[in-house]
Amino acid sequence: MKKIRIGDRLIGEGEPTFIIAEAGVNHNGDVELARRLIDVAKEAEVDAVKFQSFQVDKLSIKSEPQYEMLQRLELKKDDFILLSGYAKDKGVKFLSSPFDEEGVDLLVDLEVPAIKVASGEITNLPFLRYIAKKGLSIILSTGMSTLGEIEEAVDTIKSEGNEDIILLHCTSNYPAKPEDVNLKAMDTLRQAFNLQIGYSDHTLGIEIALASVSRGAKVLEKHFTLDKNLPGPDHKTSLEPFELKQMVEGIRAIEKAMGSGLKRPVSSELKVRKTARRSIVAKTDIQNGMTITQDMLAIKRPGFGLSPKYIDLVIGRKAKRYIRSDEVITWNDI
Length: 334
Known about the structure:
Blueprint: E1 4-6, E2 9-11, E3 18-24, H1 31-44, E4 48-53, H2 56-59, H3 67-73, H4 77-90, E5 93-98, H5 101-109, E6 114-117, H6 125-132, E7 137-141, H7 147-159, E8 165-170, H8 185-193, E9 196-201, H9 207-214, E10 219-223, H10 241-258, H11 267-276, E11 279-282, E12 297-300, H12 311-314
Helix pairs in contact: 1-4, 1-10, 6-7, 9-10
């Protein structure tokens, strides 16, 4: 399966999980709060921090109940220029989900390494075509989607000559219930599209996010906040800074634990193997030249002597020396 490049990082088998800290609108429209979110993302050692680029008048009709809330959460062009530069200075990749063509153009001008497309835009095929033409890698969330809708979106992007697509499985509910997550759908997406697959997590806590990585998510996206008690739509379902750090540490530990797939003892087990396994030992004193019978033998730790699997080869042999009771027996002794 083709690996996808996001800046200096490759996404795919054998590569570290690409972790996106989703700031979203948890800045509450305050650019200084947004800067502090970037600081938290850097401290947690994520790969990228992501915001949302929208102009409310282009996103929603005025009678929509969310319109006034979105007005308060909108960041301006100059804010994104500032935040992008700040993230770059911090060494964190800057991403954002655009919701209009002007937002796409701004992100291209800011030289983002990829475009993240929100789940709600997956049926907006004209918009997907516009994004695809920019030639950047596309991370496409698939919440609320049928397999047919995903296929149509992928085909639309590919029709513009862009095949650098990463699909994120997602359940678009806030918070999503574990029973609604369906992590096995990642396997379906991988088999259906032969693309790199990740997961955008909206559950509470970090357990499902960690499970998705162990199931093969190559990109993991998770909302975070400075404080769950802040006003705003997403804070309560987001991770606080210490939780974000725990999640990143957990993911990196899982990656180390995945290993090569070869089943063999690792070097740290070899010493333990000698103490935890058993050997054939003398149950009683065995005189030199005596024929060994089963009732003269026991099987005990440690495993420095003959393995118990050889007991039938030991029975009937003669002792070459005086073997004391509770002494480990070796081939040299019989």
